[in-house]
Specification:
- With 282 residues, this protein is α/β, with parallel strands linked by helices.
- The protein is 50% helix and 20% strand.
- β9, α8 and β10 form a beta-alpha-beta unit.
- α2 crosses α4, α3 packs across α4 and α5 packs antiparallel against α9.
- The two termini are 13 Å apart.
Length: 282
């Protein structure tokens, strides 16, 4: 655990010139790709989060978002902001030539409203935590706490935050945070959870649908791990809704009965390497 403390600055002080050049190139490519996309789908309505997720294999969400704003300013696409019943806002997008977009916009908004309710959000959180709990128990990890902010006599009091789980195996203890959402985890919360783990003297482990590679690398340098699931995990009872979201919106959602063994093996291989390194360093 000695490698932890000093590396937190990497999240705030990256090599800005190198990353800016790379970001600019990705943004130019995103503009070209999105312009072509809207020209090929000129009789459909989309929303910004949907396009960010659909393009995440090619660039980070915020780069897609900047490219969208560029195309809006250039007049290539039109947009309208609307407020969902939950109070959150959504930006609708369509090709400038799509004159009669209102019906498509209404259908899209209705579907987003359906999966954005507070009850659905709570169900998504509960489902993902249960799947994670089962997956770690299946692989002989011992749970030392759930919704917890203390371990081995140490208590986190700097904020009111806690960890979803604390698991341990082979002498290594992990503070686990589970995020079953389409957008990335908030960077401020990410850093707070890392500091929480540092304070408790345990390794951070994030189980998320998706996370930027740069963040994953920094977590790795801090001695932690990120298990990317790629799919948002719906409760089995919401299978019909999940299919509609996947088919109509092209979003990565699924209703698995458990986290697959191969997915867990990605973490277990890293865990075993960490165990070997700790044994060799003693």
């Amino acid at each position: 655990m000695a490698q932890f403390g000093h590396r937190m600055r990497e999240f705030d002080n990256p090599d800005k010139s190198r990353r800016q050049q790379s970001s600019d190139l990705y943004e130019v490519n995103a503009r070209v790709r999105l312009k072509r996309f809207f020209e090929e789908n000129n009789a459909s309505v989309f929303f910004s989060r949907q396009l960010e997720v659909q393009n995440e294999d090619k660039c980070y969400h915020w780069i897609t978002n900047r490219a969208i704003h560029y195309l809006e300013a250039e007049g290539v696409i039109r947009y309208r902001k609307c407020t969902l019943s939950t109070g959150t806002s959504m930006t609708l997008l369509w090709h400038k030539g799509y004159r009669y977009h209102q019906r498509s916009a209404k259908l899209l908004t209705n579907l987003v409203e359906e999966y954005s309710t507070p009850a659905m959000g709570e169900a998504l959180g509960e489902r993902s935590e249960l799947l994670v709990l089962e997956a770690f128990a299946r692989n002989q990890f011992v749970m030392y706490g759930r919704n917890v902010r203390k371990y081995s006599g140490r208590i986190w009091t700097e904020t009111r935050q806690d960890l979803d789980f604390i698991f341990a195996r082979d002498g290594i203890v992990y503070g686990v945070e589970v995020k079953n959402a389409l957008p990335y985890m908030d960077i401020g919360e990410l850093k707070d959870k890392i500091r929480l783990c540092q304070h408790l003297g345990i390794r951070p482990l994030f189980v998320v649908r998706m996370m930027p590679t740069d963040w994953i690398n920094e977590i790795y340098k801090l001695g932690g791990f990120t298990l990317v699931l790629k799919y948002q995990l719906y409760p089995l009872i919401q299978g019909g809704l999940a299919k509609r979201v996947a088919n109509e919106l092209g979003l990565p959602v699924d209703t698995p009965k458990r986290i697959e063994d191969e997915t867990m093996r990605r973490f277990l291989r890293w865990h075993e390497k960490s165990v070997n390194l700790e044994m060799n360093s003693q």
